[in-house]
Amino acid sequence: MNSIVGGAGISMFQDAFNAAESFGNRNPEDIKKAGEEIEGYFVHALLKEMRRTVPESSLFPKSHADRVFQDMFDEQIAQNIARAGGVGIAKAFERLY
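^ thats the sequence. predicted structure below, dont judge the formating
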């Protein structure tokens, strides 16, 4: 069974959770930033998986550079979505910590 995020994605989530747990003074701004980062990782993984479901055109095949650009673009879109309120993961994270 495939997961939405691969091994590297899970590692990033774990790193973010560990960083949040190590906040000594639990600064609300740091917690908010950590929540947005976690949400950004999740949304990026979601966008990446959604793109994999779209068939590639044989008329205009994608080069390696196209794929790299698309991944970078998706990462920026994910960060913007997370900063704008996203899907609610960051808010839930803030309530946890």
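The chain is about 70% helix and 0% strand.
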